[in-house]
Amino acid sequence: MTPAAEGGVIIRVLLADDEALVRAGVRLILRHADDIDVVAEAGNGQEALELAARERPDVALVDVRMPGTDGLAAARLLTALDPPVTVVMLTTFGDKENVTRALRAGANGFVLKDCRPEELIQAVRAAAAGDAVLSPAVTAHVVRRIRQDDRAAGTREATERVAALTGREREVLAMLGSGLANAQIAQRMGVETGTVKVHVGRILAKLGAANRVQAAIIAYEAGLADRA
After folding, report:
1. Does residue 88 contact residue 119 with C-beta atoms inside 8 Å?
2. I want to staple 225 with a disulfide (CB 3.0 to 4.6 A). Which of 6, 88, 93, 177 is the partner?
3. What phi and psi, each to the nearest 5 degrees, are found at residue 4?
4. CB of 75 closer than 8 Å to CB of 102
5. For 84-150, where are the alpha helices, taking DSSP H only?
6. Are 224 and 173 in contact (CB under 8 A)?
7. How many Å apart are CA 143 and CA 213, to the nearest integer?
8. Burial of 59 by CB count in 10 Å (0-12 exposed, 13-18 middle, 19+ buried)?
9. Cα–Cα distance between 180 and 186 in angstroms, integer?
10. Radius of gyration of the chain from Cα atoms?
């Protein structure tokens, strides 16, 4: 993020969608936010990767379905950059299966193309802050679907990862996997929100998870989220 004239920060955004009309609509919506600047637009995943390397955006809004390098491959490549780009998928209800793959590739979440303008703006802000751009209900649906698709292998690997956590960290991971925000977790635990942030940071590091969504997936695969 870059400093704003008023002393705040500007969130630099890359748009990647093969439909120019969609890009224009998203750009118009984001212009209403003083803290967001669309710095680049791409028509496919390869172009998005090249622009990201040059423009260094904070957040990339990426369409799931694009010709050539699609959104799934783009999400994996963008989140692997140094520094990584936070990816939010632009999708429709019909793309749920592809979205789950994108989340496993490192995307922070997704927004529907027909969402309200204020929801899109808030999604960009949440992604820039490192939060998952998924409601608790959607998080639960997505990770349950992932666990059903690859239950045995996922459970085995997730259990091995979770073994490295302390009891307190497993407790936090269970609530995180159920879609609770830091403030809600703090309230349940009777601690400050900052304490929960520290726990979440350590959990992500130990699990090798890129973000909260990947940690939530591991929580479900290990059977922890069912206990929250």
Report:
1. no
2. 177
3. -95, 165
4. yes
5. 96-104, 117-128, 136-149
6. yes
7. 9
8. buried
9. 10
10. 17
pTM of this prediction? Answer: 0.70
Biggest CA-to-CA distance, the chain:
53
Number of CB atoms found within 10 A of residue 50's CB: 12
Asked whether 49 and 75 are in contact (CB, 8 A), the reply is no
The position carrying tokens 């349950």 is: 144
Q: What are phi and psi of 5, to 5 degrees?
A: -60, -30
Contact 193, 186 (CB under 8 A): yes
Residue ranges and CATH numbers for the domains of the chain are 2-133 (3.40.50.2300), 142-227 (3.40.50.2300)
Q: Which of 47, 68, 33 is nearest to 60 (CA)?
A: 47
Structure tokens at 150: 């690859």
The 10s digit of each residue's pLDDT in 1-59 is: 766 545 568 999 999 999 999 999 999 999 999 999 999 999 999 999 999 999 999 99
Q: Is the separation of the CB atoms in 61 and 96 below 8 Å?
A: no
To the nearest 10 degrees (0 to 180), the angle between helices 193-207 and 212-221 is 70
180/131 Cα distance (integer angstroms): 11
pLDDT per residue as tens digits for the range 169-192: 999 999 988 778 788 899 999 999
| Contact call for residues 147 and 154 (beta carbons, < 8 A) | yes
For 196, counting Cβ atoms within 10 Å of its Cβ (0-12 exposed, 13-18 middle, 19+ buried), the class is buried
